[in-house]
Amino acid sequence: MESFNEDLKKSDAILVMNYTKNGKENYIGTNSLMEIGVAFILNKKIFLLNPPPECAKHELEAIEADVLDGDLSRISL
Known about the structure:
With about 80 residues, this protein is α/β, with parallel strands linked by helices.
């Protein structure tokens, strides 16, 4: 986590690759959710490759994560 946080401080944004995993559509795990929180606190742009999973939908909408709907060309800083 410390290494990630140091890299994040130097970055403009994060990209969460939330694919389907173990039958859970658009899965975001605990570590990724923590990383999203750190990115939010550091005022970094947050991109989700796919729509947020239902279990975190409202929180990710509240922090205005950008949903790319699978299209990486939509990344814009």
